[in-house]
């Protein structure tokens, strides 16, 4: 299987994040991608190719122009105030506050375009996020236009928490949504997204919530107990034309394979019924038992079982990396999922 990756993605190198009431060392680091690349080379797992540069159109099919412009111009606005480190928001336009007019001040804009204070914006964040989206698009292109049965976009930064006009959860551009929309625009009638990250993919769900042409399925930690806390419950099943085309399997803290497998089996049955032309897998690896921020207990062997089950669906599949922070084992777990798709 081919892997798509650009070294531009490494330029986004967060130093800190705010979590557990502390300024902590960032967990979404370039070393995550480097660990997966090292494993690809060690296991001789196919070639690694750079992404093509897609124009701004593919991004605009998912994200608002004002949000993209904010990301693009952010560093200039930040540094013109004499600031030089990575930025965090500290005020949000929640209930009772006005959405409009947009503030002029960058501190206001940071709050308007974010969902949490745990996601740093730095000098190269936009460039890396754009390269990450190009990586997702190129993986989709390998499958759509070159007929590969599967491809792997080694996306970083991840994407599934980012919505039409906000970033959060270490995500800035929604790689899976951008790839799924591109597949729709260039030939597919139906695309399914299966989100396996430990955290609910709130951004992806919200982007397609009222649509039937992109099915969204997600298995994740119960939002009553876990980030992102405000989306991902079982009763969220889509609205309007999208009614019935979103499905969530929130699972309790401590879930291992015996609790996970039945949810995966149900999701696979939905996929069989939906008959997508393409499957996009939001491949978070933070369900791993040793993940520093996750609370599930999947083992490295379980990731093989997971991949083998997906391969049995026999649908052209685009894998896009999302979370997963146990860096020492990240490459092994990732390739354990992908190995069943080797040609
Ligand atoms: C893509 C992705 O996986 N994003 C995850 C964002 C999670 N952000 C919240 C992190 C909170 C960490 N709390 C750790 C508690 C255990 N010490
Ligand atoms: Zn996650």
Automatic annotation (TrEMBL):
Keywords: Hydrolase, Metal-binding, Zinc. InterPro entries: HDACs, His_deacetylse_dom, His_deacetylse_dom_sf, Ureohydrolase_dom_sf. It comes from the Bacteria. Its cofactor is Zn(2+). The keyword Metal-binding applies. It comes from Roseibium aestuarii. CDD domains: HDAC_classII_APAH. The keyword Metal-binding applies. This is Histone deacetylase family protein. Transmembrane segments: none annotated.
């Amino acid at each position: 299987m081919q892997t798509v990756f650009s070294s531009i993605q490494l330029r986004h190198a967060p130093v800190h994040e705010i979590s557990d009431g502390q300024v902590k060392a960032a967990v979404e680091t370039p070393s995550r991608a480097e660990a997966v690349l090292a494993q690809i080379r060690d296991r001789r797992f196919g070639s690694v190719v750079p992404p093509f540069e897609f124009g701004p159109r593919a991004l605009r099919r998912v994200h608002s122009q004002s949000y993209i412009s904010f990301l693009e111009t952010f560093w200039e606005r930040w540094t013109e105030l004499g600031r030089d480190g990575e930025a965090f928001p500290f005020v949000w336009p929640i209930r009772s506050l006005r959405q409009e007019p947009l503030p002029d001040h960058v501190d206001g804009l940071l709050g308007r375009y974010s969902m949490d204070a745990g996601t740093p914006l730095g000098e190269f964040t936009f460039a890396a996020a754009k390269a990450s989206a190009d990586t997702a698009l190129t993986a989709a292109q390998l499958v759509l236009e070159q007929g590969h049965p599967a491809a792997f976009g080694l996306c970083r930064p991840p994407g599934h928490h980012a919505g039409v006009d906000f970033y959060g959860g270490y995500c800035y551009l929604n790689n899976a949504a951008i790839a799924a929309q591109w597949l729709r625009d260039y030939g597919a009638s139906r695309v399914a997204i299966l989100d396996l990250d430990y955290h609910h993919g709130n951004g992806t769900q919200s982007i397609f919530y009222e649509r039937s042409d992109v099915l969204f399925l997600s298995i994740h930690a119960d939002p009553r107990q876990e980030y992102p806390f405000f989306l991902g419950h079982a009763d969220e099943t889509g609205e309007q034309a999208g009614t019935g085309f979103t499905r969530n399997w929130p699972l309790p803290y401590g879930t291992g394979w015996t609790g996970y497998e039945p949810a995966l089996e149900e999701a696979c049955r939905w996929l069989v019924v939906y008959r997508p032309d393409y499957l996009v897998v939001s491949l978070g690896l933070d369900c791993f038992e040793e993940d520093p921020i996750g609370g599930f207990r999947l083992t490295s062997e379980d990731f093989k079982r997971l991949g083998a089950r997906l391969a049995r669906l026999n649908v052209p599949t685009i894998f896009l990396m999302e979370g997963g922070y146990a860096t020492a084992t990240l490459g092994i777990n990732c390739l354990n999922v992908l190995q069943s798709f080797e040609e």
